[in-house]
Design brief:
Number of helices: 8
Number of strands: 7
Order of helices and strands: EHEHEHEHEHEHHHE
Low-confidence stretches: none
Helix content: 40-55%
Length: about 260
């Protein structure tokens, strides 16, 4: 028996990077998977990749998690597609932008909190009633080591991820006796498009070559490397499984030892 047999998983931000890796990892463990993101082409390709690799049909949905109505429609559509509510929710949708605090305008602030924090709240609130009714569920929030520490130029991003950890811990305690767990994964720099865009931003603002910027990012980790999406997916798989039922309310770093708390 595979780890996630008979489980249904919904993964936001599932069109690439960490979300794609988690979707594939879950599907390989026999979960039925739905992926959602703002770009139909990307989630459609992930659904096709899942079918190619596992022979299992996956569902793909377009959703803007910062829009409550879009989230509500996502859960209606997922329920109709599976004829059942999701057992596992992975809140992976997220964006990252940087600016000094005095150059962080209202639009940037609300954009980051809207996707990273409100999106996690909307999806969790939509998923919990069915989990409570079944007496089983997994909430897995993809946060960041920026949710545990600060850094220059990322006040809005760090605030949103700190908020995700507070939300995770509060939900975990609310549902601890109901067969449901809520946890966060806090990656460091991951070898994804988001990190590539960050390097481009550094190059544009400082004039440093991309290779030099990448090396500086790698050196932030004691392992002197980027984390892979598959490493994050492996932690998500444990948290989603029955074997992970004793892990609740935690914020687990996947960062090579960059942050030690």
């Amino acid at each position: 028996m595979q780890l996630l047999s008979n489980r249904i998983a919904l993964i936001t931000g599932g069109g690439r990077g960490i979300g794609r890796a988690i979707a594939l990892a879950f599907a390989h463990e026999h979960a039925r998977v739905a992926v959602a993101a703002r770009t139909a082409e990307q989630v459609g390709q992930v659904a096709r990749d899942i079918y190619t690799e596992t022979g299992t049909e996956a569902l793909a949905f377009v959703c803007d998690v910062s829009d409550r109505a879009s989230v509500e429609k996502l859960f209606v559509d997922a329920r109709a597609g599976f004829r059942r509510d999701p057992d596992i929710l992975v809140n992976n949708a997220g964006i990252a932008e940087s600016a000094t605090l005095i150059k962080t305008d209202d639009a940037l602030w609300h954009r980051l909190l809207g996707v990273n924090l409100s999106g996690t709240f909307y999806c969790t609130r939509a998923a919990l009633p069915a989990m409570l009714e079944k007496g089983w569920g997994r909430i897995i929030n993809i946060a960041s080591i920026a949710g545990k520490t600060g850094a220059p130029y990322i006040a809005a991003y760090a605030a949103s991820k700190h908020g995700v950890l507070g939300l995770t811990r509060s939900v975990a305690l609310e549902v601890a006796s109901k067969g449901i767990t809520a946890n966060a994964i806090c990656p460091g720099y991951v070898d994804t498009d988001m990190t590539s865009r960050g390097i481009e931003n550094i190059t544009r603002k400082t004039g440093r070559p991309a290779e030099e910027a990448l090396e500086a990012i790698k050196k932030m980790s004691p392992q002197n490397r980027l984390v892979t999406s598959d490493e994050v997916a492996a932690v998500a798989l444990l948290l989603a499984s029955e074997e992970g039922r004793g892990i609740n309310g935690q914020a687990i770093n996947v960062d090579g030892g960059t942050v030690l708390f």
